[in-house]
Specification:
Layout: H1 58-61, H2 72-111, H3 119-126, H4 128-131, H5 135-144, H6 148-169, E1 182-190, H7 202-208, E2 212-216, H8 220-227, E3 237-241, E4 249-253, E5 257-261, E6 264-265, E7 268-269, E8 271-278, E9 281-289, H9 296-318, E10 323-328, H10 336-342, E11 352-353, H11 354-358, E12 380-384, E13 388-395, E14 406-412
Parallel strand pairs: 1-2, 9-10
Antiparallel strand pairs: 1-14, 2-4, 3-4, 5-8, 6-7, 8-9, 10-12, 11-12, 13-14
Helix pairs in contact: 2-5, 2-6, 5-6, 9-10
Length: 416
């Protein structure tokens, strides 16, 4: 049945148009419906299947499989990171093998006594306490990454290093002086022949008040520097042999000196004397300064001097006389030449390094002239036969020389 013609028709849908200007303040917006009517629910637009919506973006319309715009660089970076990480790991592994292999070769060189044949290898042995330190992080990294072959190689290097270094760093205390022993204090100092501030050592000499003062690289310049301070005046017995170069030497003593000798070994001055700390006791003193093994010629002289000291020490000790050798040996216990010298003595009893007996630990004496790098090498020594107890050991402070002075307290056992 048709509606009456005068019946109101339903409102037609409002067409979409641009928004009109905002209503004036205080007026009611024209909503097209009575004020008390509820707003109609918003219509939900639907899109026929297979057609794209009108409001689309490039990402929505991109071909299937294509990366969305704005994410290509990010995904490429993510893809590159694993490759870079693998490259870095390979580089670290290669570095580990290079370090481990190189250090293993140095270990084999020492075991083969290459310092007997190759002069430059003497420097490698001199720096044994520090040159093998990279093996420790290589071992830790190899174990962390489960690289067992590299770990085994690094572990072998670390084991050798510990075996060579640990005895000299083992903690302990000096010996006690036996009852009735004759105590004496010895100081040895390499003045560095061209050192204009050698007189600065005077303060340490006064503080230590040594009974025996041994001076290496005693030149006219360094001797004059000390004499002007007056510190040498208290020594009644002395033998001073200054030379313009690096091989002058001297000994100053509060005890009588006899049988002073000045042999030249391998063309270089040496100094020996018999010291009498009490009327019924004496010992033979060797003031030592071997040449630094910087080249083939100097190394030959260095070996000759160490060999001569070994022969003389063994011959003197065989008579029952106590022996002390002190000075700049230009050698460490990592050098075979010094180890052979330490083995010299009656019936294989050998000499003892005061540093080891006193358990002095890490106390290098050279070089103070390496800028910010502290001394790393212990080439100044006091060696003695077992008739002496070692009751004190101290390394002094810098005074202008490239060496630090060394102070050792000894006690000559009674009946010697």
């Amino acid at each position: 049945m048709l509606p009456p013609t005068d019946a109101p028709c339903p409102p037609e849908p409002r067409a979409h148009s641009e928004p009109s200007s905002p209503p004036a303040p205080g007026s009611q917006p024209d909503t097209g419906r009575p004020p008390d009517a509820r707003p109609a629910e918003p219509a939900i637009a639907t899109t026929p299947a297979g057609t794209a919506p009108e409001d689309t973006s490039p990402e929505d319309t991109a071909p299937a499989g294509a990366a969305p715009t704005g994410t290509t660089g990010e995904s490429g970076t993510r893809a590159a990171r694993p490759g870079r990480l693998r490259t870095a790991r390979r580089a670290v592994l290669a570095l580990g093998w290079a370090l481990g292999g190189g250090l293993a070769l140095l270990v084999l060189g020492r075991l083969a006594h290459l310092d007997d044949h190759l002069w430059f290898y003497i420097g490698v042995d001199a720096y044994t306490p520090v040159v093998f330190l990279p093996a420790y992080p290589v071992l830790a990294a190899a174990l962390a990454r489960r690289r067992w072959a590299l770990g085994a190689l690094a572990a072998a290097v670390v084991a050798a290093h510990v075996a060579w270094v640990a005895p000299g760093l083992w903690p302990g205390s000096p010996e006690r002086a036996p009852a009735g022993a004759t105590r004496l204090r010895l100081m040895t100092a390499n003045l560095e022949y061209n050192n204009p501030t050698a007189g600065a050592l005077a303060g340490q000499i006064r503080a230590a008040s040594p009974d025996l003062l041994l001076l290496e690289e005693l030149s006219p310049l360094t001797l004059s520097g000390l004499q002007h301070t007056g510190v040498l005046a208290g020594y009644r017995y002395r033998m001073l042999l200054p030379e313009p170069g690096a091989f002058g030497a001297g000994v100053l003593s509060r005890f009588p000196l006899t049988d002073v000798a000045q042999p030249r070994v391998a063309g270089l001055l040496s100094l020996r004397a018999t010291v009498h700390p009490r009327p019924a006791a004496a010992f033979r003193l060797f003031v030592v300064h071997t040449p630094a093994p910087r080249d083939g010629h100097a190394t030959s002289r260095w070996r000759a001097q160490l060999a001569d000291l070994r022969r003389e020490t063994a011959a003197t000790a065989a008579t029952g006389m106590p022996v002390v050798l002190a000075g700049d040996f230009n050698a460490t216990e990592d050098h075979r030449g010094l180890r052979r010298l330490l083995a010299a003595g009656p019936n294989g009893a050998g000499l003892r390094d005061a540093h080891d007996v006193a358990h002095a630990g890490w106390t290098p004496t050279w070089s103070t002239s390496s800028g910010p790098v502290p001394p790393l090498v212990r080439i100044d020594h006091v060696l003695s036969t077992r008739q002496f107890a070692v009751t004190g050991y101290r390394v002094g402070s810098a005074y202008g020389s490239d060496h630090l002075p060394l102070q050792v307290d000894l006690a000559l056992r009674p009946g010697r």
